[in-house]
Design brief:
alpha/beta; FAD/NAD(P)-binding domain; 2 domains; 7-stranded mixed sheet; 5-stranded parallel sheet; 9 helices; globular; binds flavin-adenine dinucleotide
Length: 402
């Protein structure tokens, strides 16, 4: 009976964990002794970093053939329960029913989701671009606005959250509204931020560029206020202001997938398992945590992984390699990612590219936009289903930064 590595999730971390595990097993010549199984709702990779964009084409490429090429199996289902003591998973199958699967090593790569605080009306009335389905719902809503009677509320979009996703969504929104309502239509886009400066988390050097891009896009900004209620015709702010709108987009914060809470051991404030240098869940033998479900040290200076594609691509490779390495008896690889960059899309203004944890601005406007499009449309996409080419980039120390 072969041993089994089960990977939950086929996002960036899950895909690369599977490819890296397959590579390590193949290098040891143990393909007949160890099975790798990915469990996720569909054999697709959702390109979440692009879900704020106007066109949702090719946002969830199929990875079924790619996995099969390297000998990885896929099961369409959701892991519902982790029994860490018995090393068993309960999986709800997409086809119906459930299955219990035993594992020798388990890799948790179920990502994250938008944080939805208890704001009245948020669940019923707010849109988001967090997952493929919700991005499609927002897109359909924007495209259908033209069929509503003209009103200020119809032509106003409120984006809640001044983090990176909020900035990207707000500066892209005028492009989407011109496409939906017509080039000449008058509209408002309002960005609400609880902080004093949108994008302030990226530091003082970046902030003026964000302000310039928001101004360029004609986005109105309200800072130092919270959304206190949302209803079918508008939002109410903590300042008492009411903004009439039929479209509220929520972008405020992410939390680790709920399965992380079932992994024994320490969690951080956003629900991630605190992993060790090899991405073990230290309190759960046989479990690795990766992507948005792990908090891991990226260097020896105290920096830790962000919920980002950049980190998930590397965390996935390391977790997949290490899960396989323990079974084949090859050396484990410590996770390390000292170079950190950010590239924020800012609509027609361009983009902003920074390097380092102190966010030194390196490229702006069209130059940064060209890099952003290269990252988002090429680098983070799954590779072609060519076994040798995949294994050449599935090693745990492969680095994908400019
Ligand atoms: C709008 C938006 C913009 C972003 N922009 C950027 C950016 O510019 N740069 C950047 O680096 N990052 C960005 N991110 C963050 C980035 O998308 C995430 O950090 C990244 O997707 C994390 O990868 P992951 O593999 O850990 O999780 P995910 O990509 O979330 O994948 C999780 C996988 O787990 C599956 N899954 C979930 N629950 C279960 C279950 N119970 N059982 C089995 N499978 C399950 C899902 O279907 C999916 O396949 C953005 C995110 C959003 C939403």
């Amino acid at each position: 009976m072969p041993q089994k590595i089960v990977i939950a999730g086929s996002g960036f971390a899950g895909l690369w964990a599977a490819l890296a595990a397959a590579r390590t097993i193949a290098l040891a010549g143990k393909q007949d002794e160890i099975d790798v199984l990915v469990v996720s709702p569909t054999p697709k990779l959702v390109i979440r970093p692009r879900l704020y964009e106007a066109e949702l084409d090719n946002m969830n490429p199929d990875i079924g053939e790619l996995l099969a090429t390297v000998g990885v199996q896929h099961l369409a289902g959701f892991v519902e329960k982790i029994d860490a003591d018995a090393r068993k998973l309960k999986v709800m199958l997409v086809a119906g029913g459930s299955e219990t699967i035993a594992y020798d090593r388990f890799v948790l790569a179920t990502g994250s989701q938008l944080y939805r605080p208890n704001v009245p009306g948020l669940a019923e009335h707010a849109f988001d671009a967090d997952q493929f389905d919700s991005a499609q719902a927002l897109d359909a809503h924007l495209k259908a606005l033209i069929r509503q009677p003209e009103s200020t509320a119809r032509n106003t979009v409120v984006v809640a959250g001044g983090g990176l996703t909020g900035l990207e969504a707000a500066t892209e929104m005028p492009i989407r509204l011109r496409a939906a309502l017509g080039e000449e239509a008058a509209f408002r886009v309002v960005l609400i931020d609880t902080a004093d400066t949108p994008g302030g988390s990226l530091g003082d050097e970046a902030a003026p560029y964000f302000a310039e891009a928001l101004d360029f896009a004609g986005v109105e900004v309200r800072t130092g206020v919270r959304v206190t209620a949302i209803d079918a015709t508008g939002v109410t702010l903590s300042s008492g202001e009411r903004i009439e709108t039929h479209t509220v987009m929520w972008t405020a914060g992410m939390r680790a997938n709920a399965l992380a809470a079932q992994v024994p051991g320490e969690k951080d404030e956003i629900g991630r398992v605190v992993g060790d240098a090899y991405l073990h869940a230290p309190a759960a033998s046989g479990i690795f945590v990766t992507g948005d479900t792990v908090r891991a040290a990226t260097d020896e200076l105290g920096n830790v992984s962000a919920m980002s594609c950049q980190h998930a691509l590397s965390l996935g490779r390391v977790a997949g390699h290490n899960a396989a390495a323990e079974l084949v008896g090859s050396p484990l690889h410590p996770y390390s990612q000292p170079k950190y960059v950010t590239c924020v899309d800012l609509g027609d203004w361009g983009a902003l590219y920074t390097e380092g944890w102190d966010r030194q601005v390196r490229l702006t406007r069209a130059e940064a936009k060209a890099l952003k499009q290269e990252i988002n449309r090429v680098w983070i996409y799954p590779p072609a289903a060519d076994r040798d080419a995949v294994f050449a980039v599935a090693n745990p120390d492969f680095v994908i930064v400019p």
